Amino acid sequence: MSEKNTSYPKEKINILLLENINQTAVSNIEKHGYINIKRIPGALNEDALIKELKNVHLIGIRSKTNITRRVLEHAPKLQAIGAFCIGTNQIDLTAAAQHGVVVFNAPYSNTRSVAELVIGASIMLIRRILDKNIAAHNGKWNKDASGSYELRGKTLGLIGYGNIGSQVSVLAEAMGLKVIFYDILTKLPLGNAVACKSLKELVSNADIVSLHVPDTRSTQNMINKQVLKQFKKGGILINYARGEVVDIDALAESLKSGHLSGAAIDVFPIEPEKNGDAFSSPLQGLENVLLTPHIGGSTLEAQENIGVDVSTKLLGYLEKGITYGSHTVPALSLPMLEGAHRILHIHKNVPGVLSEINTTLANANVNILGQYLATNEHIGYVVLDVDKEISRHALNLLKHVKETLRVRLLY
Fold first, then answer.
1. Is the four-CA dihedral 325, 327, 331, 334 of positive or negative sign?
2. Among 263, 291, 319, which residue terminates a domain?
3. What is the pLDDT of residues 3-26, one digit of tens each?
4. Helix (H/G/I), strand (E/B), else coil: 210
5. What's the CA gap between 385 and 388, in Å, rounded?
6. How far is the C-alpha of 76 from the C-alpha of 46, rounded, in Å?
7. Is residue 76 domain-shared with residue 144, that is, in the same domain?
8. pLDDT of residue 2
9. What is the per-residue pLDDT for 8?
10. What's the CA gap between 347 and 400, in Å, rounded?
11. Which of 1, 204, 255, 257 is 20 to 30 Å apart from 16, CA to CA?
């Protein structure tokens, strides 16, 4: 294959990166020969985003930029979205799929950063270091062991035993903690961790409860007033998952009453748009409460890993049609074929589309050298390798296939 990876000149491909995406992503993209990269430090509102996306082919965002249906409807050239973070809640995935826009994220790159901070917060809270720190800053010497404990021998309860939860489990056992976990899916325990049959069983037996669940309908306000009453007296709650999972007002009351002895909260139901904006929470001013501004995964190592991971996925799709890791278009990872041109066809997953593609090309005497198909509930993704001499003709024919969402000559 020649060095020219796409049929569209690289100097004409426009890439927009928002929210201070790490330099590793920029360097990776530039290394592949793309020069039209625009960087904007913060997030953009819907109208500003629509204006910026008019001629953009790839966009990279973090958690503060919302890609709505309206935004996608006004982004005719957009091929792919890279979420340089764990979640994709800020993207209308249904609308993206309907427009044939591929969406990637980095679900594993900051796992270690979050896991380490959970262990660190556990130590700070169970030793009541926060209170002593404030006292020392205020000129008060408060050398007191009352209410201060070791982690060793205590029980850590993990709600959610996925990538981060299981990593916390390994680190916690190394610290001498007993680990129990609850997950709606059956998970193989690591080390000596023990699965609980219910949420109530977990929270009533754990000295420290750490949340590692996504934001879904079933997890919203999962930790509410009723569940907080089931916590072990003097228990500690850590939330480095999603802000909507905890009823903050109910948590504040539980802390004020003394039922819980501490909490570490990194995510909130409503968060400021950018650094420097005002922030308010019912948890402010409470003893032994560690509040941080959504920085669970914000380490230099994590941001570098995320930058490489997501930019590599974007480039893989742009240059090879690889959709492994996509949340919208079905996953395909396929080899390059020498002596052929490659066409990408994204369509609604309804019966008869593949048959129409093959019939249309056969009637035009287009020789298919390779064909790959993947589908999900809503989308079908076909990659076709065809003779170079008639690839443009094949492309024009495929544009008129019923249920087509997007078709592109890759190279």
1. negative
2. 291
3. 455 667 899 999 999 999 999 999
4. strand
5. 9
6. 16
7. no
8. 40
9. 73
10. 11
11. 1
Secondary structure E strands in 251-307: 260-265, 289-291
Q: Tens of pLDDT along 29-49?
A: 999 999 999 999 989 999 999
Residues 144 and 249 in one domain: yes
What was the pLDDT predicted at 396?
Answer: 93
pLDDT at 40: 95
| Average pLDDT, consecutive stretches of 10 residues, N- to C-terminus, the chain (411 residues) | 61 95 96 96 94 97 94 97 92 96 94 96 97 94 94 97 96 98 95 97 98 92 97 98 96 98 96 88 96 93 95 95 95 86 95 94 91 94 91 92 94 84
Residues with active-site annotation: 242, 271, 294
What pLDDT does 5 receive?
57
CATH code assigned at 238: 3.40.50.720
The answer to whether 72 and 78 are in contact (CB under 8 A) is yes
Give yes or no: residues 206 and 194 share one domain.
yes
Claim to verify: residue 197 and residue 95 sit in the same structural domain: no
DSSP string, 118-139: HHHHHHHHHTTHHHHHHHHHTT
Half-sphere exposure of 171 (CA within 13 A, CB side): 19
Cβ contacts of 61 within 8 Å, gap of 6 or more: 18, 19, 21, 43, 67, 81, 82, 83, 84, 90, 91
Pair 164, 188: CB distance under 8 Å: no
Q: Give the pLDDT confidence score for residue 4 in this predicted structure.
A: 53
pLDDT, position 7: 65
Please check whether residue 69 is in contact with residue 92, taking contact to mean a CB–CB distance below 8 angstroms: yes
Residue 405 CA to chain centroid, in angstroms? Answer: 25
Phi, psi angles (nearest 5°) of residue 57:
-100, -35
CA dihedral angle for residue 374, residue 389, residue 319, residue 8, rounded to 10 degrees: -130
The 3-state DSSP class for residue 195 equals strand
Task: Show contacts of 383-387: CB within 8 Å, 24+ apart.
Answer: 383/321, 383/332, 383/334, 383/342, 383/343, 383/344, 383/345, 384/342, 384/343, 384/345, 384/357, 385/337, 385/340, 385/341, 385/342, 385/343, 386/340, 386/341, 386/342, 386/343, 386/361, 387/340, 387/341
Tell me, what's the pLDDT at 6?
Answer: 62
Amino acid in position 312: T
Name the domain count of the chain.
3
- 8 A C-beta contact, residue 317 and residue 323: yes
Q: Which domain holds residue 384?
A: 338-411
User: Quick one: tokens of 221?
Assistant: 């306000």
What's the pLDDT score for residue 1?
Answer: 38
Q: Are 21 and 307 in contact (CB under 8 A)?
A: yes
